[in-house]
C-alpha cells in the first residue's frame, strides 16, 4: 500500500513579514507569559486549506486541479495578534488580512470541491506560537490583546502546495509545487 502524504495549500510570507513576526515572537518570549514553542521562521505561513493525509495519486490529481486556478496577484498585510478561545489557549496567531486571501481560499475550495470537504470556518491566520501552559491568564490576555502590530504589506504572487512530515523536533515542510498568480 502506498504511503500517505500529509498535505496543505499555503501562502508564504515576504522576508520583511517573516522578520517582523520574529521580532514580535522575541517580544512575547521576553515577557515569559507561557511555556510552549514558537514557530520557526522557515515554517511561518498561512494555510489556505489543509488536505490531511492523501495518497500519491490524490496528490497528483490535486496538483493538476490547482494548476488550473487563474487568480490575480494581490496585496496582503499583517494585522492583529490573537488566539482562538479565551478558555483554552493553544495557539497565538497573527492575522494575514486582505480580500485576496479570502477570495483565493474560496477559489481553491471551489476547485477542489468534489475531492475535499470545503472549509467551514476559514480564518486567515499565521501560527506564531503553540502554547502548553499559560503562567498568568490575565497578564497573557492583556499583553496579546494590546500589542500593536505594524501593517506590513506585501504582494502575494503565488500559492504553494506543500507536504508536511511530522518529526519529533517539529514539522518539516517541502514544496510539492508553487503556482504563480497572474500578474496584471
Describe the structure.
It is a single chain. The longest helix has 17 residues, at 15-31. The mean pLDDT is 94. The strands form two sheets. Strands 2-6-5-4-7 form a five-stranded antiparallel beta sheet. The chain has a four-stranded antiparallel beta sheet with strand order 3-1-8-9, covered by helices on one side. The chain starts with a strand and ends with a strand. It has helices at 15-31, 56-67, 99-111, 137-146, and strands at residues 5-12, 34-38, 45-54, 74-82, 91-97, 125-134, 153-156, 158-167, 170-180. It is built from four helices and nine strands. Helices cover 28% and strands 40% of the residues. The chain is of the alpha+beta class. The protein has one domain (5-179): Cyclic Phosphodiesterase, Chain: A (Alpha-Beta Complex).
List keywords for this structure.
single chain; four-stranded antiparallel sheet; Cyclic Phosphodiesterase, Chain: A; about 180 residues; alpha+beta; five-stranded antiparallel sheet; 9 strands
Q: Determine the oligomeric state from the structure.
A: single chain
How much of the sequence lies in strands comes to 35-45%
Q: Helical stretch count?
A: 4
Q: What number of structural domains do the residues give?
A: 1
Strands in their spatial order, largest beta sheet: 2-6-5-4-7
Helix % is 25-40%
Q: What is the CATH T-level topology?
A: Cyclic Phosphodiesterase, Chain: A
Give me the CATH architecture, please. Alpha-Beta Complex
| Rg over CA atoms | 17 Å
CATH class: Alpha Beta
State the separation between the terminal residues, measured CA to CA: 45 Å
Low-confidence stretches: none
Q: Give me the secondary-structure category.
A: alpha+beta
CATH superfamily: Cyclic phosphodiesterase
N-to-C SSE string, H for helix and E for strand: EHEEHEEHEHEEE
The count of DSSP E runs of length 2 or more, i.e. the number of strands, is 9
Mean pLDDT level? 94
Largest sheet: 5 strands, antiparallel
3D shape:
globular
Amino acid at each position: 500500500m502506498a504511503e500517505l502524504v500529509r498535505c496543505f495549500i499555503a501562502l508564504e510570507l515576504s522576508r520583511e513579514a517573516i522578520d517582523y513576526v520574529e521580532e514580535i515572537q522575541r517580544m512575547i518570549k521576553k515577557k515569559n507569559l507561557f511555556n510552549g514553542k514558537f514557530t520557526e521562521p522557515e515554517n511561518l505561513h498561512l494555510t489556505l486549506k489543509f488536505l490531511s493525509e492523501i495518497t500519491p495519486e490524490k496528490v497528483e490529481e490535486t496538483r493538476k486541479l490547482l494548476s488550473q486556478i487563474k487568480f490575480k496577484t494581490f496585496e496582503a498585510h499583517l494585522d492583529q495578534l490573537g488566539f482562538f478561545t479565551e478558555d483554552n489557549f493553544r495557539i497565538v496567531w497573527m492575522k494575514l488580512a486582505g480580500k485576496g486571501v479570502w477570495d483565493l481560499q474560496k477559489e481553491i475550495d471551489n476547485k477542489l470541491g468534489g475531492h475535499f470537504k470545503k472549509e467551514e470556518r476559514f480564518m486567515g491566520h499565521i501560527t506564531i506560537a503553540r502554547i502548553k501552559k499559560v503562567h498568568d491568564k490575565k497578564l497573557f490576555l492583556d499583553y496579546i490583546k494590546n500589542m500593536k502590530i505594524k501593517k506590513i504589506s506585501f504582494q502575494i504572487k503565488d500559492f504553494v502546495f506543500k507536504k508536511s512530515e511530522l518529526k519529533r523536533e517539529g514539522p518539516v515542510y517541502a514544496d510539492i509545487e508553487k503556482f504563480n498568480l497572474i500578474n496584471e
